Amino acid sequence: MHIDENDESVRLKALRELDIMDTPPDPHLDAVVKTAALVCDVPISLITLLDEERQWFKANAGLSGTSQTTREVAFCHHTIAQNNLLEVNDALKDARFMNNPLVTGDPGIRFYAGAQLTLNDGSTVGSLCVIDRQPRTLTEKQKNILNHLAEITAQALQSNKTARQLSESEALFRALRAASPLGIFVTDSKGHCTYTNARWHSIFGIDEASAMGDGWTSTLHPDDKRRIASDWPRTGFLEQSLDCEIRIQRADGSLVYARLLTQPTLNAAGEVTGHVGSVDDITKQRVQEQALRESELLLKHTGALADVGGWAYEIATGELTWSEQSCRIHGVPVNYEPSLNDAIGFYTEEAQPVIRDTVQNAIDNGVGWDIELSMIRADGELIWVQSVGNVEYDNGSPVRLFGALQNVTHKVNQRHAIEAAHDRMALATESGSIGIWEWDIVQDELSWTPLMYELYGLRPSDTPLTYDTWRNSVHPDDLSAAETNLKKAIATGVDFDDQFRIVRPDGEVRHLRATARLARNASGAALRLVGVNWDVTPMRSLTSELAEQHELLHVTLRSIRDAVITTDASGNIAWLNPTAEEMTGWSVEDATSCHINQAFHILNSNTREIAPYPIEACLQQGHSVALGSNAVLLSRDGNEFGIEASAAPIRNEQGDILGAVLVFRDVTEQRRLSSEMTYRATHDSLTDLSNRAEFEYQVSIALKEAEATGTEHAVLFVDLDQFKLVNDACGHSVGDLLLQQVAKLLRACTREGDIVARLGGDEFGVLLKYCAIQPAESIAQELCNQMDVFRFAHEKRRFRIGTSIGLVPLDNRWHDVSDIMQAADIACYAAKDAGRNRVHIWYDTDKNISTRTADMKWATRLELALDNDRFELCAQLLSDLSNNSTALHLEVLLRMRADNGALVSPAMFLPAAERFHMATRIDRWVLEHGIEKLLALPDPSRISTMYINLSGQSIGDIVFHRDAIELLKNAGPIACERICVEITETAVITNMADATIFIDQLHDLGIKVALDDFGAGASSFSYLKSLNVDTLKIDGQFIESMLHDPLNAAAVRCFIDVANVQGLRTVAEYVSSTEVLQHVKEMGIDFAQGFLLHKPQPIDQVLACRVNQPEMMANC
């Protein structure tokens, strides 16, 4: 590089005048280069001075082992030749330096930035530079700081020279005061100038004539003139010299700073006769001092700007000094005076051993440091600092440590962020299969990452890639458009963004997306394109599929009967399907952009108040929202629809809400049916009263309230006394009419808010809310009275019904609904047992209640017996009085095995079974096991007749009839021909219609029917006409006493005559003596039964015996 010889001569002269080459290291300048390295984040920083043959390093940070290079290889040679900072981003790519041995060899310079060291006279003596072994670029802020540091360095170099000159001038001036002053002047005692020399003239800028007398004072600054006028007489009177600084205002407008020194002259008498003085032009000194102050201020501000502080540690005394910025970095006052341990204590726990060992190593071995550590400020904030330290020697011994401290928290965080970003970028490109490429437009060189080769189906090779490599891979149909877009990007600078197909070497076609950004040089010429490629083939396929699905969805939504409305994020309608148009009364055209609340107007069907809008809640809460079950949609044309609706947010891939979708459907008919079903589920269809389940639910609510608040309620259990009489006499349909009239009467006798329910059959329940026992008893009694006077009329017949009522107080003594219902049932049956048509109140100590409770205990035992198969069958033989039969006639009897192993008679448990409606289950068990025993016999023909008893409940239970007929059908003719079902006269009378049908069904299967306990009823003969039975079993009370009671004997004869007329067999029960046996034979009775003839035994023993075996008389 060419430098003008005249300029170079001036520059070298200025360098020599600095007298600084090959001088010892200056700690202040060392601090400057370390600061520059810290600020620019580089490992090397130098202050280089360039003379005729070499560049010499006045200060060196990071380039150990050398202090100079030849001028030919010096980067500084280029720096001083231009007017601004020289920045070389990559020396290997810069033609000026790519072959420089400092680049190709040690230290391997790749990056260089140098700022000129320009003196006040404009001479450039060297540079302040920063160097890195990696390519990089300085920020504008770093460049500014580097320039400022170069200015500081230049001023410091001149200040050193000025300080030396000032010292020499002052020494010379002191010597010349008596002999050769620089500017000499003489005055009389009054200060009138009488002599000046040439130097004086040059300083004051006036000639000798102008200086004479008071003329010299005319050049003084007014303030200085007044001060001289004041001080001059005093110096003469006191015989003192005058030494001061003055300002001289020259005619050319320049201002000269001068030092004025006078010495009084004395005559022989010792009187002051005048003054001899000298004047020294110190203008340059003052300018340099000001420059130094400005330089120090600039350094201070630069330190604050770069957050760099200085420090010094005296090894001998242990005194540690921090600069103001160092104090600020630590978060302490600027006058803070720390000890070494205090300073180390600011570092984090893991950093303290590092800095302590580093400092000790510097003291012991003279090794400086440059490390990055974490620190905790006085206010608790965690920061990162760059700590730089060096050692100062005196006579070969370390005496002082000094260095700099920079807050690099931001830089560290940035580095960590960059590292994280780099990792994320690498992960993103790899996981996203994104290939990166760069095309050097000037050189036509194309660079690909490995993923680019994968995308194009090519293998990496040493063959250089060019534009044609890419061009030849693009599908011919897409090439023209792709090239046009690429050229447009190069011409306009707009980012390249395109999609095109490529054809891989194997013929596979893939869709790629490409984006790139153009880089230009300083003149605006296009240099290179840097971009990425990624495979969008799946996305294109997905887009096509989505388009098809969108069309399919659109058609589907238009076809379904559910109404669909979509909105934007503000709730404005975007679209409606036809069903939504039909239900809201709004067309798509009218509704689009309207707010959803305007077209979708909903009310609460119960309160008729505006219902909450699901779309608003959905958009606010960000999740699906369902509409309440009572919502009604008001159509634009006034129609109402019961609806079910739900709204859900529509989100993009990032989770941002784009809008919402509302789906609703017409459930008007469904809701009507549901309401009807709910009503039916809780009400009795015949009477429109609550059913048992609803009644027990209402009782449970009342019970919880009683437990929580102590309120009192009452429960009535109402049973009709003569319902079956009406049912049997007039038929079920008339019985239903009676139940409806009773329901109306119950409602009329109770209060509003009370719950009246039909519990089943002819049983009713009443829940008297908030009713104490006394008013509850009054209401129950009034109900009983009304039923007493009530007459049910049918076809000129009038029936007195009557009712039995159990009353239970519902208070906090109860804990379970079943207990209350059971207590009410017990109380009701206690009323029946006490004579019917009355009210019985439940009390813990009531004897009737105790009896009923005992029955309940039997009911529990019966449940356990049924569950655990603890019933057993016994049998009692019947004697054929005609002696014509060789087969067995027997009656099946039931026993229950107690916990102690004893057999319990049915007389103990059958009443409880009847009361608690368990008799039917027991009958079913007996029938099943009796048939099983019969069919298990090797020779069933040995059995002529097996009598099996059925209870009155089973006779009146149609379900039992169905199950029994099915069981007997499955048993077959062998069993049916031998079974005779016994039913009591009382059971038949109570269930006449059902009993008649059941008897006919039994006969159809070949099963015989016996009427048990005949004669016990008052109307036996009248009912016998209506019944198709096969056998009469005469009640034992007539048989036992007929030898002593002629009336009973006559009744028995009458029964026999009636049986003979109707062709029925007869059985005499309770035959207990030989006399009675003989008498019944004589009367013509067919069979006899009693303990005289056979005591009951287990049925297996009876079935195994032969007729007339003596052992059959054994006790069971």
Write the layout of secondary structure elements.
Layout: H1 5-18, H2 27-40, E1 44-50, E2 54-61, E3 68-70, H3 76-79, E4 86-88, H4 101-104, E5 111-118, E6 124-132, H5 140-176, E7 184-188, E8 193-196, H6 198-204, H7 208-211, H8 222-237, E9 242-249, E10 255-266, E11 272-281, H9 283-306, E12 308-314, E13 319-322, H10 324-330, H11 340-345, H12 352-365, E14 369-376, E15 382-394, E16 397-407, H13 409-431, E17 434-440, E18 445-448, H14 450-456, H15 467-473, H16 476-492, E19 496-503, E20 509-520, E21 526-535, H17 537-559, E22 563-568, E23 573-576, H18 578-584, H19 588-591, H20 596-599, E24 601-604, H21 614-621, E25 625-626, E26 631-634, E27 640-651, E28 657-666, H22 668-682, H23 692-709, E29 713-720, H24 723-730, H25 732-749, E30 755-760, E31 763-768, H26 773-789, E32 791-794, E33 797-800, E34 803-810, H27 817-833, E35 839-841, H28 847-868, E36 871-877, E37 879-880, E38 888-897, E39 903-904, H29 906-915, H30 919-935, E40 943-949, H31 952-955, H32 958-971, H33 973-976, E41 979-984, H34 985-990, H35 992-1004, E42 1008-1014, H36 1020-1024, E43 1031-1034, H37 1036-1041, ...
Helix pairs in contact: 2-5, 5-9, 24-25, 25-26, 27-28, 28-29, 30-32
Largest sheet: 11 strands, mixed
In the predicted model, the low-confidence regions spanning at least 5 consecutive residues are 177-181, 1108-1116
Given helix and strand content, the structural type is alpha+beta
User: Helicity range of the residues?
Assistant: 40-55%
Residue-averaged pLDDT, rounded? 86
For the record, the count of structural domains works out to 7
Ends apart, CA distance between termini: 141 Å
Number of helices: 40
CATH architecture descriptor of the largest domain: Alpha-Beta Barrel
The CATH class designation of the largest domain is Alpha Beta
